[in-house]
Amino acid sequence: MNIHNEMILAEYDEMLPIYRRLERIVEISLQNIIDNNGLTVTAVSARVKSRESLAGKLALKGDKYHSLGDITDILGARIITFYTDDVDRIAALTEKLFDIDWENSVDKRRLHDTDSFGYNSLHYICRLPKSIVNEPDCPQLNEISFELQLRTTLQHAWASINHDIGYKTDVEIPHFYMRQINRLAGMLEMADDEFSRIRTEINNYRRRVQQLVQNGKLDDVQLDGDTFRSYLETKPFEMFNRRIAAINQAEIQEVPLTNYLGEFIALGCKTLGDVDRLYKQYMDDAYALARHQLGNTDLDILSSSVGVQNICIVCILATGGGKRGLVRFFNALNGDNPQNELLAEMTYNQAKDLPFMQK
Fold it and tell me: Is 269 helix (H, G, I), strand (E, B) or coil?
Protein backbone atom coordinates (compact mmCIF):
# COMPACT_ATOMS: atom_id res chain seq x y z
CA MET A 1 0.00 0.00 0.00
CA ASN A 2 1.36 3.42 -0.94
CA ILE A 3 1.90 6.32 1.44
CA HIS A 4 -1.20 8.16 0.21
CA ASN A 5 -3.48 5.26 1.10
CA GLU A 6 -1.78 4.79 4.44
CA MET A 7 -2.48 8.45 5.23
CA ILE A 8 -6.19 7.93 4.46
CA LEU A 9 -6.23 4.87 6.73
CA ALA A 10 -4.55 6.89 9.49
CA GLU A 11 -7.24 9.55 9.06
CA TYR A 12 -9.86 6.81 9.30
CA ASP A 13 -8.38 5.59 12.61
CA GLU A 14 -8.51 9.13 14.00
CA MET A 15 -12.06 9.80 12.82
CA LEU A 16 -13.54 6.42 13.73
CA PRO A 17 -15.09 7.57 17.07
CA ILE A 18 -16.89 10.40 15.25
CA TYR A 19 -18.12 8.01 12.57
CA ARG A 20 -19.45 5.74 15.32
CA ARG A 21 -21.36 8.65 16.83
CA LEU A 22 -22.72 9.59 13.43
CA GLU A 23 -23.75 5.97 12.85
CA ARG A 24 -25.94 5.99 15.97
CA ILE A 25 -27.48 9.38 15.19
CA VAL A 26 -28.32 8.41 11.60
CA GLU A 27 -29.87 5.08 12.55
CA ILE A 28 -31.98 6.61 15.32
CA SER A 29 -33.11 9.44 13.01
CA LEU A 30 -34.17 6.98 10.32
CA GLN A 31 -35.98 4.73 12.77
CA ASN A 32 -37.85 7.75 14.12
CA ILE A 33 -39.23 8.78 10.73
CA ILE A 34 -40.35 5.18 10.14
CA ASP A 35 -42.10 4.98 13.52
CA ASN A 36 -43.56 8.49 13.45
CA ASN A 37 -45.15 7.91 10.04
CA GLY A 38 -46.60 4.50 10.85
CA LEU A 39 -44.52 2.68 8.24
CA THR A 40 -43.57 -0.99 8.30
CA VAL A 41 -40.21 -1.94 6.81
CA THR A 42 -37.97 -4.98 6.72
CA ALA A 43 -34.88 -3.31 8.16
CA VAL A 44 -33.32 -0.01 9.18
CA SER A 45 -29.58 -0.10 9.67
CA ALA A 46 -26.38 1.93 9.60
CA ARG A 47 -22.83 0.67 9.63
CA VAL A 48 -19.31 2.07 9.50
CA LYS A 49 -17.04 0.43 6.95
CA SER A 50 -14.38 -1.72 8.59
CA ARG A 51 -10.71 -0.84 8.29
CA GLU A 52 -10.10 -4.02 6.30
CA SER A 53 -12.89 -3.17 3.86
CA LEU A 54 -11.57 0.36 3.43
CA ALA A 55 -8.06 -0.93 2.81
CA GLY A 56 -9.41 -3.22 0.10
CA LYS A 57 -11.28 -0.34 -1.51
CA LEU A 58 -8.16 1.85 -1.46
CA ALA A 59 -6.11 -0.91 -3.02
CA LEU A 60 -8.52 -0.93 -5.98
CA LYS A 61 -9.51 2.73 -6.27
CA GLY A 62 -7.20 4.71 -3.98
CA ASP A 63 -6.13 7.10 -6.71
CA LYS A 64 -9.69 8.48 -6.89
CA TYR A 65 -9.59 9.93 -3.37
CA HIS A 66 -7.59 12.87 -2.07
CA SER A 67 -8.68 12.38 1.53
CA LEU A 68 -11.04 10.32 3.71
CA GLY A 69 -13.78 12.91 3.22
CA ASP A 70 -13.94 12.06 -0.49
CA ILE A 71 -15.14 8.54 0.33
CA THR A 72 -18.88 8.92 0.85
CA ASP A 73 -19.67 5.38 1.94
CA ILE A 74 -17.47 5.09 5.05
CA LEU A 75 -20.82 5.31 6.78
CA GLY A 76 -23.61 3.53 4.95
CA ALA A 77 -27.26 3.46 6.01
CA ARG A 78 -30.00 1.33 4.53
CA ILE A 79 -33.77 1.04 4.67
CA ILE A 80 -35.35 -2.06 3.15
CA THR A 81 -39.09 -1.87 2.48
CA PHE A 82 -41.74 -4.38 1.54
CA TYR A 83 -43.18 -2.34 -1.34
CA THR A 84 -41.79 -0.19 -4.14
CA ASP A 85 -44.10 2.74 -3.40
CA ASP A 86 -42.79 2.81 0.18
CA VAL A 87 -39.31 3.47 -1.21
CA ASP A 88 -40.57 6.71 -2.77
CA ARG A 89 -42.52 7.65 0.36
CA ILE A 90 -39.48 7.16 2.61
CA ALA A 91 -37.32 8.97 0.06
CA ALA A 92 -39.56 12.03 0.40
CA LEU A 93 -39.24 11.86 4.19
CA THR A 94 -35.46 11.52 4.15
CA GLU A 95 -35.14 14.42 1.74
CA LYS A 96 -36.69 16.58 4.46
CA LEU A 97 -34.63 14.94 7.18
CA PHE A 98 -31.10 15.19 5.73
CA ASP A 99 -29.14 17.55 3.50
CA ILE A 100 -28.94 15.73 0.17
CA ASP A 101 -25.98 16.00 -2.21
CA TRP A 102 -28.08 15.75 -5.36
CA GLU A 103 -25.12 15.87 -7.74
CA ASN A 104 -23.67 12.66 -6.32
CA SER A 105 -26.92 10.88 -5.48
CA VAL A 106 -28.33 8.39 -7.98
CA ASP A 107 -31.59 6.56 -8.57
CA LYS A 108 -30.39 3.32 -10.10
CA ARG A 109 -33.98 2.26 -10.73
CA ARG A 110 -34.11 4.78 -13.57
CA LEU A 111 -30.82 3.90 -15.23
CA HIS A 112 -31.98 0.77 -17.05
CA ASP A 113 -32.87 0.74 -20.72
CA THR A 114 -36.36 -0.42 -21.66
CA ASP A 115 -35.05 -3.90 -22.43
CA SER A 116 -32.65 -4.32 -19.49
CA PHE A 117 -33.03 -5.36 -15.87
CA GLY A 118 -30.74 -5.59 -12.90
CA TYR A 119 -29.74 -3.73 -9.76
CA ASN A 120 -32.44 -1.38 -8.50
CA SER A 121 -31.85 0.93 -5.57
CA LEU A 122 -32.08 4.59 -4.64
CA HIS A 123 -28.79 5.97 -3.33
CA TYR A 124 -28.59 9.33 -1.55
CA ILE A 125 -25.41 11.03 -0.43
CA CYS A 126 -26.36 12.89 2.72
CA ARG A 127 -25.14 15.08 5.54
CA LEU A 128 -26.70 15.73 8.93
CA PRO A 129 -28.31 19.17 9.17
CA LYS A 130 -27.84 21.22 12.30
CA SER A 131 -31.53 20.76 13.06
CA ILE A 132 -30.63 17.18 14.04
CA VAL A 133 -27.28 17.78 15.72
CA ASN A 134 -25.37 20.99 16.35
CA GLU A 135 -22.19 20.62 18.38
CA PRO A 136 -19.65 23.42 17.88
CA ASP A 137 -16.99 21.19 19.47
CA CYS A 138 -17.60 18.51 16.82
CA PRO A 139 -18.47 20.19 13.51
CA GLN A 140 -17.49 17.02 11.63
CA LEU A 141 -20.89 15.53 12.50
CA ASN A 142 -22.42 18.00 10.03
CA GLU A 143 -19.60 17.81 7.51
CA ILE A 144 -19.18 14.06 6.94
CA SER A 145 -21.03 12.66 3.95
CA PHE A 146 -22.70 9.26 4.24
CA GLU A 147 -24.61 7.03 1.86
CA LEU A 148 -28.26 6.06 2.30
CA GLN A 149 -29.67 3.18 0.25
CA LEU A 150 -33.41 2.66 -0.15
CA ARG A 151 -34.76 -0.49 -1.78
CA THR A 152 -37.33 -3.25 -1.45
CA THR A 153 -36.82 -6.70 0.04
CA LEU A 154 -36.79 -8.25 -3.44
CA GLN A 155 -34.34 -5.65 -4.72
CA HIS A 156 -32.13 -6.35 -1.71
CA ALA A 157 -32.31 -10.10 -2.35
CA TRP A 158 -31.35 -9.52 -5.98
CA ALA A 159 -28.41 -7.30 -4.99
CA SER A 160 -27.13 -9.87 -2.48
CA ILE A 161 -27.49 -12.83 -4.86
CA ASN A 162 -26.00 -10.96 -7.81
CA HIS A 163 -23.05 -9.85 -5.70
CA ASP A 164 -22.49 -13.40 -4.49
CA ILE A 165 -22.68 -14.89 -7.98
CA GLY A 166 -20.95 -12.14 -9.87
CA TYR A 167 -18.13 -11.07 -7.62
CA LYS A 168 -16.96 -14.17 -5.76
CA THR A 169 -14.24 -14.89 -8.31
CA ASP A 170 -12.38 -13.13 -11.07
CA VAL A 171 -13.76 -15.56 -13.65
CA GLU A 172 -16.05 -13.85 -16.17
CA ILE A 173 -19.57 -15.30 -16.14
CA PRO A 174 -20.63 -16.74 -19.54
CA HIS A 175 -23.31 -14.90 -21.50
CA PHE A 176 -25.78 -17.79 -21.08
CA TYR A 177 -25.75 -17.50 -17.29
CA MET A 178 -25.86 -13.71 -17.32
CA ARG A 179 -28.98 -13.88 -19.49
CA GLN A 180 -30.63 -16.23 -16.97
CA ILE A 181 -29.71 -13.88 -14.13
CA ASN A 182 -31.17 -10.91 -15.99
CA ARG A 183 -34.37 -12.84 -16.72
CA LEU A 184 -34.75 -13.45 -12.99
CA ALA A 185 -34.11 -9.76 -12.35
CA GLY A 186 -37.03 -8.93 -14.65
CA MET A 187 -39.26 -11.39 -12.80
CA LEU A 188 -38.36 -9.84 -9.43
CA GLU A 189 -39.08 -6.37 -10.81
CA MET A 190 -42.51 -7.52 -11.99
CA ALA A 191 -43.17 -9.18 -8.60
CA ASP A 192 -42.28 -5.94 -6.81
CA ASP A 193 -44.73 -3.99 -8.97
CA GLU A 194 -47.46 -6.61 -8.51
CA PHE A 195 -47.13 -6.66 -4.73
CA SER A 196 -47.52 -2.87 -4.66
CA ARG A 197 -50.48 -2.99 -7.05
CA ILE A 198 -52.25 -5.69 -5.02
CA ARG A 199 -51.69 -3.77 -1.78
CA THR A 200 -53.18 -0.65 -3.34
CA GLU A 201 -56.23 -2.57 -4.56
CA ILE A 202 -56.75 -4.22 -1.16
CA ASN A 203 -56.56 -0.84 0.58
CA ASN A 204 -59.07 0.59 -1.89
CA TYR A 205 -61.34 -2.41 -1.26
CA ARG A 206 -61.13 -1.86 2.49
CA ARG A 207 -62.04 1.79 2.09
CA ARG A 208 -65.04 0.86 -0.06
CA VAL A 209 -66.14 -1.69 2.54
CA GLN A 210 -65.84 0.84 5.35
CA GLN A 211 -67.92 3.32 3.36
CA LEU A 212 -70.62 0.72 2.65
CA VAL A 213 -70.73 -0.29 6.33
CA GLN A 214 -70.93 3.32 7.49
CA ASN A 215 -73.77 3.93 5.03
CA GLY A 216 -75.62 0.84 6.23
CA LYS A 217 -75.41 -0.96 2.86
CA LEU A 218 -74.60 -4.25 4.54
CA ASP A 219 -76.14 -6.50 1.89
CA ASP A 220 -73.49 -5.30 -0.55
CA VAL A 221 -70.63 -6.45 1.68
CA GLN A 222 -69.45 -10.05 1.60
CA LEU A 223 -68.74 -11.52 5.03
CA ASP A 224 -65.02 -12.13 5.65
CA GLY A 225 -62.37 -11.24 8.20
CA ASP A 226 -61.80 -7.69 6.94
CA THR A 227 -65.46 -6.81 6.53
CA PHE A 228 -66.41 -8.32 9.89
CA ARG A 229 -63.77 -6.16 11.58
CA SER A 230 -65.19 -3.10 9.83
CA TYR A 231 -68.65 -4.09 11.04
CA LEU A 232 -67.42 -4.49 14.62
CA GLU A 233 -65.85 -1.03 14.47
CA THR A 234 -69.39 0.38 14.31
CA LYS A 235 -70.04 -1.30 17.72
CA PRO A 236 -73.28 -2.98 16.57
CA PHE A 237 -73.77 -4.91 19.84
CA GLU A 238 -72.98 -2.06 22.23
CA MET A 239 -76.55 -0.95 22.98
CA PHE A 240 -77.69 -4.55 23.32
CA ASN A 241 -74.87 -5.27 25.78
CA ARG A 242 -75.90 -2.26 27.85
CA ARG A 243 -79.46 -3.53 27.92
CA ILE A 244 -78.25 -6.90 29.22
CA ALA A 245 -75.86 -5.29 31.72
CA ALA A 246 -78.74 -3.25 33.15
CA ILE A 247 -80.29 -6.49 34.46
CA ASN A 248 -77.67 -6.54 37.24
CA GLN A 249 -76.32 -3.02 36.85
CA ALA A 250 -73.13 -4.72 35.69
CA GLU A 251 -69.97 -3.26 34.22
CA ILE A 252 -68.99 -4.31 30.68
CA GLN A 253 -65.46 -5.51 30.07
CA GLU A 254 -64.36 -5.15 26.45
CA VAL A 255 -63.03 -8.26 24.67
CA PRO A 256 -62.35 -8.99 20.97
CA LEU A 257 -65.32 -10.33 19.01
CA THR A 258 -63.57 -11.34 15.79
CA ASN A 259 -63.66 -15.02 16.81
CA TYR A 260 -67.43 -14.99 16.22
CA LEU A 261 -66.90 -14.64 12.47
CA GLY A 262 -66.66 -18.41 12.03
CA GLU A 263 -69.90 -18.92 13.93
CA PHE A 264 -71.85 -16.46 11.80
CA ILE A 265 -70.53 -18.24 8.71
CA ALA A 266 -71.54 -21.59 10.25
CA LEU A 267 -75.02 -20.15 10.82
CA GLY A 268 -75.33 -19.45 7.09
CA CYS A 269 -74.39 -15.77 6.91
CA LYS A 270 -72.79 -14.73 3.63
CA THR A 271 -72.98 -10.93 3.91
CA LEU A 272 -72.94 -8.39 6.71
CA GLY A 273 -76.60 -7.89 5.94
CA ASP A 274 -77.21 -11.52 6.90
CA VAL A 275 -75.39 -10.96 10.21
CA ASP A 276 -77.43 -7.83 10.92
CA ARG A 277 -80.73 -9.56 10.14
CA LEU A 278 -79.85 -12.55 12.30
CA TYR A 279 -78.97 -10.16 15.14
CA LYS A 280 -82.26 -8.28 14.87
CA GLN A 281 -84.28 -11.47 14.48
CA TYR A 282 -83.01 -13.08 17.69
CA MET A 283 -82.19 -10.03 19.82
CA ASP A 284 -85.30 -10.15 22.02
CA ASP A 285 -85.00 -13.89 22.62
CA ALA A 286 -81.30 -13.47 23.40
CA TYR A 287 -82.21 -10.80 25.95
CA ALA A 288 -84.78 -13.14 27.52
CA LEU A 289 -82.07 -15.80 27.81
CA ALA A 290 -79.70 -13.31 29.43
CA ARG A 291 -82.35 -12.27 31.94
CA HIS A 292 -82.93 -15.94 32.76
CA GLN A 293 -79.17 -16.46 33.16
CA LEU A 294 -78.48 -13.38 35.29
CA GLY A 295 -81.70 -12.79 37.20
CA ASN A 296 -80.73 -14.87 40.22
CA THR A 297 -77.03 -13.92 40.29
CA ASP A 298 -75.06 -10.97 41.57
CA LEU A 299 -72.61 -10.83 38.64
CA ASP A 300 -71.45 -7.24 38.26
CA ILE A 301 -68.92 -7.64 35.42
CA LEU A 302 -69.95 -8.95 32.01
CA SER A 303 -67.90 -9.57 28.90
CA SER A 304 -68.77 -7.50 25.84
CA SER A 305 -69.29 -10.83 24.07
CA VAL A 306 -72.42 -11.52 26.12
CA GLY A 307 -74.78 -10.12 23.51
CA VAL A 308 -73.33 -11.75 20.41
CA GLN A 309 -72.87 -15.05 22.24
CA ASN A 310 -76.51 -15.18 23.27
CA ILE A 311 -77.60 -14.24 19.75
CA CYS A 312 -75.67 -17.26 18.42
CA ILE A 313 -76.98 -19.56 21.16
CA VAL A 314 -80.60 -18.63 20.48
CA CYS A 315 -80.12 -19.04 16.72
CA ILE A 316 -78.59 -22.49 17.19
CA LEU A 317 -81.41 -23.65 19.45
CA ALA A 318 -84.20 -21.99 17.45
CA THR A 319 -83.04 -23.70 14.28
CA GLY A 320 -82.88 -27.16 15.84
CA GLY A 321 -79.19 -27.39 16.67
CA GLY A 322 -79.91 -28.61 20.18
CA LYS A 323 -77.24 -29.58 22.69
CA ARG A 324 -74.97 -30.94 19.98
CA GLY A 325 -75.04 -27.58 18.22
CA LEU A 326 -74.13 -25.84 21.49
CA VAL A 327 -71.21 -28.19 22.08
CA ARG A 328 -69.90 -27.41 18.58
CA PHE A 329 -70.35 -23.71 19.26
CA PHE A 330 -68.44 -23.74 22.55
CA ASN A 331 -65.72 -25.94 21.06
CA ALA A 332 -65.29 -23.41 18.26
CA LEU A 333 -64.96 -20.56 20.74
CA ASN A 334 -63.01 -22.23 23.53
CA GLY A 335 -61.26 -25.14 21.86
CA ASP A 336 -62.18 -28.79 22.33
CA ASN A 337 -62.70 -29.33 26.05
CA PRO A 338 -64.86 -31.77 28.04
CA GLN A 339 -66.12 -28.78 30.03
CA ASN A 340 -67.95 -27.60 26.93
CA GLU A 341 -70.33 -30.55 27.27
CA LEU A 342 -71.28 -29.33 30.73
CA LEU A 343 -71.55 -25.74 29.54
CA ALA A 344 -73.82 -26.80 26.68
CA GLU A 345 -76.02 -28.82 29.06
CA MET A 346 -76.34 -25.90 31.47
CA THR A 347 -77.11 -23.43 28.66
CA TYR A 348 -79.71 -25.74 27.15
CA ASN A 349 -81.45 -26.10 30.53
CA GLN A 350 -81.48 -22.30 30.96
CA ALA A 351 -83.16 -21.87 27.57
CA LYS A 352 -85.52 -24.86 27.32
CA ASP A 353 -88.50 -23.17 28.94
CA LEU A 354 -88.21 -19.88 27.07
CA PRO A 355 -90.84 -19.04 24.42
CA PHE A 356 -88.56 -19.35 21.39
CA MET A 357 -87.93 -23.03 22.29
CA GLN A 358 -91.65 -23.73 22.19
CA LYS A 359 -92.18 -22.50 18.65
Answer: coil
Report the amino acid identity of residue 73: D
pLDDT digits (tens), the chain, 359 positions:
688 888 999 999 999 999 999 999 999 999 999 999 999 999 999 999 999 999 988 888 868 888 898 999 999 999 999 988 899 999 999 999 999 999 989 875 554 444 444 455 789 999 999 999 999 999 999 999 999 999 998 888 777 776 666 554 455 666 666 667 777 777 777 888 888 888 888 888 788 888 888 888 999 999 999 899 989 999 999 999 999 999 989 999 999 999 999 999 999 999 999 999 999 999 999 999 999 888 778 888 999 999 999 999 999 999 999 999 999 999 999 998 889 999 999 999 999 888 888 76
Return the domain boundaries, the chain: 3-156, 235-357
CATH number of 3-156: 3.30.460.10
CA-nearest of 75, 54, 50, 66 to 127 is 75
The closest of 259, 312, 322, 325 to 283, measured between CA atoms, is 312
